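User: Modeling request: complex.
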Amino acid sequence: MTAPGGLRPRLVKRLLPSRRMRVAVRLIALLSAFAVAGIFLQATGRGAGPVYRAMWTGSFGSPYGQAQTILAAIPLIFTALAVAVAFRMLLWNIGAEGQFYLGAFGATAVAYAAPDWPRPILLGAMVLGGLIGGALWGLIPGALRAFFGTNEIVPTLLLNYVAILLVDYMVNGPWTDPATLGFPLGKPFSESAILPLVGNTAIHAGLYLALAAALVVSLVLSRTAWGYKIKVIGANTRAASYAGFSIPRNVVAVMLLSGALAGLGGMVEVSGVVHKIQANISPGFGYTGIIVATLARFSPLYIVPMAVLFGALVVSSVELQTLGLPSDIVLMLQGVILFFALAGELFVNYRLVWRAGAVSNRPSTPASASEPAPDLEPAG
Amino acid sequence: MTSAIELRGIVKRFPGVVANSDIDLELRRGEVHALLGENGAGKSTLMSVLAGIYQPDAGSILIDGQPVALRSPRHAIEAGIAMVHQHFRLVKPFTVAENVLLGARTSWRLSPGKLEAEVADLARQAGLKASPSARIWQLSVGEQQRVEILKALYRKAQVLILDEPTAVLTPQEAEALFVTLRAMAAEGKTVVFVSHKLSEVMSVADRITVLRGGKHVATLETATTDQHRLAHLMVGRDIAFESARSPRAAGEVLLRVDDLHALSDLGLPAVRGASLSVHAGEILGLAGVAGNGQRELAEALAGARPPTRGRIELGGVDLTRASARRRIEAGLAYVPEDRLGTGLVGSMDATANIMLKSLPQYRRGPLLDYRSAARRTRELVEQFGIKMSSLDAPVRLMSGGNLQKLLLARELSSSPRVVIAAHPSSGLDVGATKFVHELLLEQRAQGVGILLISEDLDELLMLSDRIAVMYEGEIAGEAPPDEANLERIGLLMGGTAAAAPRAGGGG
Amino acid sequence: MSSELIVTIFVAGIAAGTTLVFAAVGEIIAERSGVLNLGVEGMMLAGAVTGFLVNRQLRAPWLGVAAGISAGAALALLLAVLVVSFKANQVVTGLALVIFAIGMTGYLGESVVGVPPPVTFERIAIPGLADIPVAGRIFFAQDALVYLSYILVPATWWILFRTRTGLNLRSVGESPESADAAGLSVTGTRYAAVVIGGAFAGLAGAYLSLARAPSWVPNMTAGRGWIAIALVIFATWSPLRAALGGYLFGSVEALGFRLQTVGLEVSTFFIAMMPYLFTIVVLVLISRGSVQRRLAAPSALGNAYLREER
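Assistant: Request completed. Predicted assembly structure:
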């Protein structure tokens, strides 16, 4: 066999993931996705220009759009935080959507049960209701994982469907508003069940809750003993259990917190935006939250700007609808952005090296690495 | 004399290290050629290049004088080169026959009966014992190795490379392997034997090539050299063969283990009634081929595995069901074999790892005091001479030797009374190994009781006051640690009832 | 509950289960090579909408099926590129694919929502076999795609366990290093397995929109792809058990619809929850099950493979 000439690309693992590539990858992913989607739109007979212009106007390009973007970012912050917290322990919480719904459920139950309480107290109780509702929905897969070892991916997912059906049942049954004649809408909340607005904007106080949640989660994960424990468990279960950390207990705790965060998002949405319970309170916040968390590398603080970006995307889909264009385009766009980001992630962890074929008598170049470690065993 | 294989100017780099630096190697037909070097010298890497697993960054390979490009294992196999790895490339749930025939050009339809007959034939011809319908996970390590060799023979390999083959064999099994290898060489094949064990290399090879620090140092005829010269070439300086251990009277019993039983990860009995005791100021060596329950025993003692029966006592305190924390408090330290598995968290930094076993010390309410932990870490790093690029770097980037130092620093800093050290020098070069040995002897001198679990008989002979042998979950027997008893130890390791101890013999 | 009702439930159960069977068998092929394909739901949707559109255009259901298969395979190819060549995380990539597919299929199917198809797959009774009491009605009075599944399932089993191709595939999923060292192409095998798995998923979706429903409604798979993934675990990665499980799940779904006829007053919403809750219960039972069951997963499932990685 003779060796061919020419260059062949090879993947070489980097010692440490490249920070520069991380940022570059995200930017390029974003731009590439828009480019590809633009081509698709042109090809299917819809102008990319008008679509993108509409998306811009609906999100960042107008004061109304900006407010709507923030309003859409708020629930995304909550669901992304939920996913990030779970992922710290390498748990995949795909159930943020269902936990969101259960949070809305819990908050609504409180709002309907005590509509005449003074506002601060009622809102506080609704926050509790949201936290508990979401936490319960996170507890189920968490307990299953902790005590039976059932992998949480499928249960969290299937529970989403169950949660949506549960809310469907309530808004078509016990909670339905007779005034709307069979539409799946609940009765409007009382004044004191509605979150106040921030200043003279259209943004509700849930924003404060979201930002506070991001800060608190960030602090808990990085500064507390518990945050350290779950980081260890996620990084190396053997070492963690040997160090005496109880894995089942922490799995449950993490899923409770994760569910509670998503549930709080649900509360904030019904109380701040919709002002009632209805059939489709979430256009997929739970799933988009996963994308936001992934792109933000599961960091609570980076989640906030990412959530704003995707909030813009969510909101722009609404704008598209009012113009008679299908909002599904935005879902596709989200998927494509993530595809490019995932593909680009390869270059964060690996370097592409071009070398000639095996037959080459080039003199060996001096080692470019730092101190060679003589007792590093390169196992064959 | 035609060279069967020639490697010229091979260079292979990995992130952070040059594993092979401009190496030339010449292999002949009909010879057993040993590739000698300490851990990290680049032997496995070089052979992986020859076997098509790694692509060299520079250099060329010639077979019968013709340059070839071995771009993948398939190319190497087609060129007649087969490799038996240290960690076998066998599919555990499959049968022996399925593994031997994997990737070969058999008929498309597979009928198990025919397959097994074919493999049985091959085994018979080669003089190797094998049961074609057995599943790999059912076989002993020595048997699995035979399957790997069968695989090579089935593909009509002319060049057989074995990477540290005796690491998992008893002395008797190793002898049997050498017989097989010499027979294959006699048939005109080329056998490459990668090892760091001087005595083996002297007894089986025709020629020996020594690698050091990724470079070719020398190629010698076995007949013209000896262990001392080889050791000198291997390490670059003279090393002492004598034991550094001075005899000591052992103190009171610190650790007592009575009839301990524990299950493996698969739920099968792994420790089946092991009893032993470790005294203050003594090193009890535990010999045995891997897979006889040593790991499970160590984990049961350390608190990482619940025993199903039996008793563990340290200084009179019953630790059988105690938490890992309680054991630490009672004075038990554990240096596990998988440093980056049970021992350390690879993706976290040194400080985070040091904190792992003593978390309560650094708690301030719900928060953690990283700063004082970092201070303590710096102290330990200095004390133990640990080399690392930065205190914040993930520890998986550290070399094996420094990782072990970190682990030891953490475990020993709590001034334990008993240390369980599982394969503490595996994968370390001579310098790091010496450090570890000296550390253990130091602890011994201070009255600490040490349970040293190792597959390296030389290490055990050098360090232990007593040697116990573990076989199939039990302590098969004990022997005083001198060369004369090597045969008896080997027999115990292989499961044969203790023969009358006789000096001399194989090993 | 009368025996007539039970038979009716099983008849409907086979039909309902066939979607799951196709998807699960495809997933088994992919997972046996070591790749966790979480995009099944999306590939099914792609198959459903493409099949429906082609059938509507060409009035030929079998061409619709072919189109559905191709659509599923195409999406699977995208997943394979990302997961095998770009070593992307398999869980996130699968989810991204589903989100993308929901958007894409919603977009493509916009014009045909709720529109009845021109031609569908009708029930065909196999002469002779259909006359067998009880079993005949259940198994041999179904539509052509169900009969196709009767052939595909044992064929897949046979290929997996009685041919060299199957052995090679399984070795890649159990121990890619060993397969690589034996000269097999891990990359090539995984690509093939994932694409075939996607083709099966596309077939499952086409079955939904061309035979079962038959119609196109956005997001009509309603989580069946996820149930299929759970079904693979339940079936310990064996096609024959997957078929059994699929029909069982299908029967549970069919049972739910008929609860009201038995006099149980249950809201349709709670009935709709049944398949999901049932799946979760099954998953839990499996996790508690014997060690052998839990360890039946291909050992390398979910991990990317790079030869020089150590």
